[in-house]
Structure formats: C-alpha cells, structure tokens
Design goal:
Strand content: 5-15%
Number of helices: 5
Distance between the termini: 46 Å
Number of domains: 1
Structural class: alpha+beta
Shape: elongated
C-alpha cells in the first residue's frame, strides 16, 4: 500500500524573481526545514542513488551509522514534508524521492537568469 501524503502544490515562484507569498514561503520553509539536517540529506542521496531510485528502510541504517529508530524518525519527517514517498511491502517500508517536490524546491532557489 503506497502512502501518499497530500501532494504538495508546486512550491512557488523563484524567490529571486518576486517576493514569496506567505503561503509559498511556508511551503518552501517546510521543505527546507526537512532537508536542513545532515542525516536527512544523506538519506535523500542514498535513496536517489539506489537501484531503481528506491530503497528499503532496512538498507539505510548501516550507511548512515544511525539506529533503526533514528533513521525511521528522519524518514518520517521527509515523508511528512513530501520529499519522499513510502510504500509498505510486507514488513518493510520502501522509499523513493518525490522528484517533482525536489525540482520545485530547486526551482524556487534558482537564479532567474541573465536578464534579471
């Protein structure tokens, strides 16, 4: 059963182009807050680099050097922020990036280009 959090709306207009609305600033801050932890960034990169772009929670403790409980907590925060998606397969949870959400965050932080 695939757990799909409420699908985040594409984040916002690049903040270097125009001021963010309160709603857009809150949405972007939520994603950045979830990513602003070294363990979470490492988990995102491990999942993205895994075969097929998905990883079992059971394979994420050793590379991070963290306990299963700690890894589960960080994965839950990333799911809650819409950064990754969770699918239960038997007794194990599998995770994959929500590439649209990552691209949305990157786009919000991108430079507007040479004409701006």
């Amino acid at each position: 059963m695939l757990f799909m959090p409420e699908r985040p709306t594409p984040c916002c207009v690049p903040l270097l182009v125009s001021p963010l609305s309160d709603e857009d600033a809150g949405r972007l801050a939520g994603a950045l807050k979830a990513l602003a932890d070294p363990v979470r960034l490492r988990l995102v990169s491990l999942i993205a680099a895994s075969d097929g772009g998905e990883a079992c929670a059971c394979d994420l403790t050793a590379p991070t050097g963290r306990s299963q409980a700690t890894v589960s907590h960080h994965l839950s925060q990333l799911v809650k922020a819409g950064i990754i998606e969770r699918e239960q397969r038997g007794k194990w949870a599998w995770f994959r990036l929500d590439r649209g959400r990552i691209e949305s965050v990157c786009a919000a932080l991108s430079s507007p280009g040479p004409n701006r």
